[in-house]
């Protein structure tokens, strides 16, 4: 058996074999490239999921922080300082008018922060109006106690009483803070 192979058919066979090898190489190259890119895409998807989760957590923390800022502002407004002293006196005066007692400030000792501030004042009015004033004072935003209290009749009328009060305010904060 003598098979004659022509140069032309050998060339065509070799070219076909070369094309087949080139196609196989291209197939395996693309297959491994796609595998690598798929792994990269999967990793990127996991990273995006983690980032999205962190973004949601950040929004929750941001929302909590905003609500805490409101709470902090409310807490800070509960403190009284030298700047608020006129407001304090106006509040006390308005409490007196509300209950029918006359309020007169006598003096104040605004101490260092951490120590209570002290305000001395006089109330003139009936027993019930003085009692109502002290009750409203107890329920005001100024956290304090009555340090000294004296009650006596006024010389004007036996129904009018005078109360000398020294009130310690604990939620005082000096400007130096």
Helix-strand pattern, N to C?
HHEEHEE
Largest sheet strand order: 1-2-4-3
**Extended strand count:** 4
Which segments are poorly predicted (pLDDT under 50) over 5 or more consecutive residues? none
**Helix/strand/pairing category:** alpha+beta
Strand % is 15-25%
Distance between the first and last residues' Cα: 112 Å
Q: Name the CATH superfamily assignment of the largest domain.
A: Ribosomal protein S6/Translation elongation factor EF1B
> What's the CATH class of the largest domain, please?
Alpha Beta
Number of domains: 2
How much helix, percentage-wise, in residues? 55-70%
Average pLDDT = 85
* CATH architecture grouping of the largest domain: 2-Layer Sandwich
Shape: rod-shaped
Largest sheet: 4 strands, antiparallel
Rg result: 44 Å
Examine the coordinates and then state which fold CATH places here, giving the name of the CATH topology of the largest domain: Alpha-Beta Plaits
The total count of helices amounts to 3
């Amino acid at each position: 058996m003598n098979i004659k192979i022509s140069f032309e058919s050998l060339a065509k066979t070799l070219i076909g074999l070369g094309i087949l090898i080139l196609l196989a190489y291209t197939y395996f190259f693309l297959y491994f490239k796609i595998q690598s890119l798929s792994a990269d895409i999967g990793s990127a998807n996991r990273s995006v999921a983690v980032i999205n989760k962190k973004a949601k957590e950040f929004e929750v923390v941001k929302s909590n922080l905003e609500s805490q800022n409101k709470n902090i502002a409310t807490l800070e407004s509960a403190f009284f300082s030298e700047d608020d002293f006129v407001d304090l006196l106006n509040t006390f005066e308005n409490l007196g008018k509300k209950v029918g007692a006359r309020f007169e400030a006598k003096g104040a000792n605004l101490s260092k922060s951490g120590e209570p501030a002290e305000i001395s004042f006089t109330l003139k009015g009936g027993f019930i109006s003085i009692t109502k004033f002290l009750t409203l004072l107890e329920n005001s935003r100024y956290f304090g106690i009555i340090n000294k209290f004296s009650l006596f009749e006024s010389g004007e009328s036996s129904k009018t009483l005078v109360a000398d009060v020294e009130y310690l305010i604990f939620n005082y904060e000096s400007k130096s803070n």
